[in-house]
Design brief:
This protein has 653 residues and is of the alpha/beta class. It has 18 helices and 22 strands. The relative contact order is 0.04. It is a single-pass type I membrane protein.
Length: 653
């Protein structure tokens, strides 16, 4: 009968709470009756039955108001989360928590949005301290009354970790020791006091069992734990986002923490200017986070010698100084978001295995980095403003080989310079071996130069270029001297119908056939011949140039003898020069004897061109055809010439 009554009572309790959750219309008297039933039905021996009953009581009660005026966030056999704790329901909460004595299965308790006075908070904390709860979390608490001394009993606790976040204190005047002493002397393994504008923390009064301390986002300064030798078991200390300024003072703070392994002092105001200030770190410290501070190159003078993992990202480091103290145990180094212009060497990091140097100012990282750092397994060097040039080719080639070591390849490795390659991934950037190998480029350029010189030399010899250069120089000098000697004279007037150029070996034909038939025949023609018209005292070249310029036409008597004459070559060159300079049709070619092509010297390329392009008169062997020859020749040089000085046909100067 008793068992039936108990079952009926639990069923009735469940139905009432279900109705309360959805309609919230249970009267205060019913609430009290429920609480009495709840209290009377649970045995007081600390057995697990009360946890099971509590789970039944709060089934489907996620964030819902109960008869205790707080909100149940989570409720299982091992975890309980409550919200909206005030001074009005503290006693009820303490009464509830008193049931969970040591040996109960409840291990995790979270209280959120608390607004209580100092003594009420400590009453709750004292109750939890002697319960089965091992992990106690308080999130967002407002302390409403004066903070005063409290005789806290630290004995006989199951608690392992206490976390308190977002504490707001309304009391402006109180003894700091009364507040901090409560937490400093706790004999638990882990303590977190975060986001609470805490300005100080006392050193424990005796050797502390703390192994983990987290004071994230407070206002702690360099005065923290100075000369404190009670944290001998502390392994992890988090001081991120505080107001620490002096790196040496922080190092002295750790020097008495004999077991410290991990220290996070990131996002502070830390500086270190060197100035021969010695640093003294805990010898056990193996992992240090110094990111997001104001540290420069001098930080490498103030580092733990046994450090294995070091985070220096987001500082003001421009280089890793040579000659720094060796960090022989360092395996991981983070230098991202600094001002480095190149990869650091490993002379001070002989055991380095991983390096992060992202988001610096590296244009062309050193290709010999992996040679200097043989133990490095991964290099994270992306998101730098890479300059895609020959210097970068060797660095890229390292990743294209089997077993590449670049972390984040290829997405994080992009060209920034030059502008036309901006956005191109380094894996798609290629330059030829010739463009990047200076030695090969110089050898190739030298070979090409030698080949070019050889070709030019051959052409110069084959085409007799030096001869033409010399002739051009002499012609220019002759013209210049003529202008300086007679600057007042007008442009040279034509005095001859034609200038005759021939080989001395063909002079008989010229004197016996050409001159008589042109000068003494019908239609008088005035010819310029070197034997009678060259002016004594002038150079032969000057005479040739003057005769050609004073003649309307230039007649060249071509034969095998002609191509063997150097002077004939001069005369042909100057006449050809006049042909192009004056744009006149002034050349008449007479082929006295056939000229085999093979006997024409290479430098007579102009003669070859003239004979190929221009019509020439061929001296006929048959006498019957010679009359027509002379008619055609006269027609070629026909001109009404106003003779200078009244000179007649056949007369000489």
């Amino acid at each position: 009968k008793t068992d039936n009554m108990r079952s009926l009572r639990i069923f009735f309790l469940y139905k009432c709470l279900f109705a309360l959750t959805f309609w919230n219309r249970i009267s205060l008297s019913v609430e009290n009756e429920l609480f009495k039933s709840f209290s009377n039905d649970f045995p007081e021996d600390g057995s697990d039955e009360k946890i099971k009953s509590l789970a039944l009581l709060y089934t489907n009660s996620h964030q819902s108001k109960t008869h205790f005026d707080w909100v149940v966030i989570q409720n299982t056999t091992e975890s309980l989360s409550l919200s909206e704790i005030t001074n009005n329901n503290v006693k009820k909460l303490v009464a509830l928590l008193s049931n969970f004595r040591q040996g109960s299965r409840l291990q995790n308790l979270t209280l959120t949005n608390m607004a209580v006075d100092w003594n009420s908070l400590l009453d709750i904390l004292q109750t939890v301290w002697h319960s089965s709860i091992e992990y106690f979390n308080i999130n967002s608490i407002t302390l409403l009354s004066d903070i005063e001394n409290y005789g806290f009993d630290y004995s006989g606790t199951s608690m392992k970790a206490l976390t308190v976040k977002k504490v707001f204190i309304t009391d402006l005047y109180f003894s700091q020791d009364d507040l901090y002493k409560i937490f400093a002397d706790m004999n638990i393994a882990a303590l977190t006091l975060a986001e609470s504008e805490m300005i100080h923390m006392l050193c424990p009064s005796s050797d502390s069992p703390f192994r983990y301390l987290n004071f994230l986002k407070n206002d702690l300064t360099d005065l923290l734990f100075q000369k404190c030798d009670k944290l001998i078991q502390l392994e992890t200390l988090i001081l991120q986002k505080n107001k620490l300024e002096s790196l040496p003072k922080v190092s002295y703070m750790t020097s008495r923490m004999k077991s410290l392994k991990y220290l996070d002092i990131s996002s502070n105001l830390l500086r270190h200017d060197g100035a021969h200030v010695q640093c003294q770190w805990a010898e056990s410290l193996s992992e240090l986070d110094l990111s997001s501070n104001q540290l420069t190159d001098a930080v490498f003078e103030c580092l733990p010698v046994n450090i294995k993992k070091l985070d220096l990202q987001n500082n003001q480091i421009t280089s890793v100084p040579k000659g720094m103290a060796e960090l022989k145990s360092l395996k991981e180094l983070n230098l991202a978001l600094n001002r480095l212009a190149d990869l650091p060497g490993c002379s001070g990091f002989t055991s380095l295995e991983f390096l992060n140097i992202e988001m610096n100012l590296i244009l062309t990282p050193s290709a010999d980095f992996f040679q200097n750092c043989p133990r490095v397994k991964k290099l994270q060097a992306g998101l730098n403003p890479f300059k895609c040039s020959c210097e970068l080719q060797d660095f890229i080639r390292l990743e294209r080989q089997p077993g590449g070591k670049l972390f984040g390849w290829p997405a994080a490795y992009v060209c920034e310079y030059p502008e036309d390659l901006r956005g191109t991934q380094l894996k798609d950037f290629h330059l030829t071996e010739l463009a990047c190998n200076t030695t090969l480029l110089l050898v190739t350029a030298l070979l090409l130069t030698l080949v070019l010189v050889a070709v030019v030399a051959f052409l110069c010899i084959y085409l007799d270029v030096p001869w033409y250069v010399r002739m051009t120089w002499q012609w220019t000098q002759t013209k210049r001297r003529a202008w300086h000697n007679h600057p007042e004279e007008p442009e040279t007037a034509l005095q001859f119908h034609a200038f005759i150029s021939y080989s001395e070996r063909d002079s008989l034909w010229v004197k016996n056939e050409l001159i008589p038939n042109l000068e003494k025949g019908e239609g008088c023609v005035q010819l310029c011949q070197h034997e009678r018209n060259f002016i004594p005292g002038k150079s032969i070249l000057e005479n040739i140039i003057n005769c050609i310029e004073k003649s309307y036409k230039s007649i060249f008597v071509l034969s095998p003898n002609f191509v063997q004459s150097e002077w004939c070559h001069y005369e042909l060159y100057f006449a050809h020069h006049k042909l192009f300079s004056e744009n006149s049709d002034s050349l008449i070619l007479i082929l006295l004897e056939p000229i085999p092509p093979y006997i024409i010297p290479a430098r007579y390329h102009k003669l070859k061109a003239l004979m190929a392009k221009r019509t020439y008169l061929e001296w006929p062997k048959e006498r019957s055809k010679r009359a027509l020859f002379w008619v055609n020749l006269r027609a070629a040089i026909s001109i009404n010439l106003q003779m200078a000085g009244g000179q007649g046909c056949g007369e000489t100067d």
